[in-house]
Amino acid sequence: MAAPDGTLNCEDFSMFQDVLKVMRNIDDRIVHSLNTTVPTVSFSGRVDASQTCRQLYESLMEAHLSRDRAIKTCIAQTSEVVGQLREQRTKDGDMTTVKLLRKEQTKLKLMRSELNVEEVVNDRSLKVFSERCRTHYTPPTVK
C-alpha cells in the first residue's frame, strides 16, 4: 500500500489519514459508479452489466486489501517504535522518553481505530454493491 506517489508516511498520523482518504475514493463514490455503469432495465441490452459489476467488484477488493495492508503495516511499525521506547524508558526513565512514548501510544490507538473505520467503509460499499449488482454478478465466496 502506498500513497499515489508511492510513499507511505506512518510517522505523521495526519498524513497517514490523508493517504487513506485518497485511497477510499472508490468507496466514497460507489453509488455514483454504480449509477453510471450499471444499466437500468430500459438500457440493459446496451451494456454488459455482469462484466461491469465484476470489474467494479475486483476494483473494490483490490482497494480494500491495499488499505488493509497499509493500516496493518503502519500499526506494526508504530508498535515496534512503542516497544523500543518502553525498553528505553525502563533503562533511563527520562521524561522526554515518557512523553514520546505516550505520543506514540496515542498514534497507535488512532491507527488501530482506523481498522474499525475501514471495516465500516468496506461493509457499506459491499452492501451498496450487492443491492445494485446482485442480479448481474455474484462475487466468489470467501472461506
Automatic annotation (TrEMBL):
Q: Mind telling me which residue stretches traverse the membrane in this protein? A: none
Leader sequence range is none
Q: Name one GO cellular component term.
A: mitochondrial intermembrane space
**InterPro entries in the record:** MIX23 (IPR019171)
One Pfam family in the UniProt entry: MIX23
The record's family statement is: Belongs to the MIX23 family.
UniProt name for this protein: Protein MIX23
The record lists the organism as Oncorhynchus mykiss (Rainbow trout)
